[in-house]
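Lab notebook, bench 4. Still working through the backlog of constructs that have no structural model yet. Next entry is a single chain of 157 residues. Request: give me the structure tokens for it.
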Amino acid sequence: MNILFYLTPKCDCAFLEEDDTLRQALEKMEVRRHAAIPLLSKNGHYIGTITEGDLLWNIKNKYNLDLHEAERIKITSIDRRRDYMPISIRANMEDLCELAVHQNFVPVCDDNDSFIGIVTRQEIIKYFRNQLAAAENAVKKEEPLKVHPTREPAAVF
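Model written out:
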């Protein structure tokens, strides 16, 4: 299964770029209501993931901030606890699912390691829900089991 069918393209994703500030990150996460956002380099390569927790712990432990102060702090100066692992555009659904077990979304990069979008865990669940429904419909459409003509049918209790 081609993972591109489930990709939310970069143009529809919220993301931060390495020159963005802490204030921009806070505002983007508030407006889009995301708890985690991909972080990209100037040339579009995936750097990592910024989470609400990353921002809060850095504000608490490194900075004594108000919003004007937050405008001077580059987002790349924020320590990240862990990054969401990206996947290649050529990956299969099994690889995608393996990462989605531990991540709310999976960043997708092209052959040049440029970020092209994300696949959300929600899209993966929808895929498997549709697969299950298709399998159930196929079972319902099967003809009843035919009895071999030389044998008596078994009694049904």
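Notes after review: The domain at 3-141 is CATH 3.10.580.10 (CBS-domain). The helical segments are 22-32, 52-61, 67-70, 93-100, 121-141. Flag for follow-up if needed.
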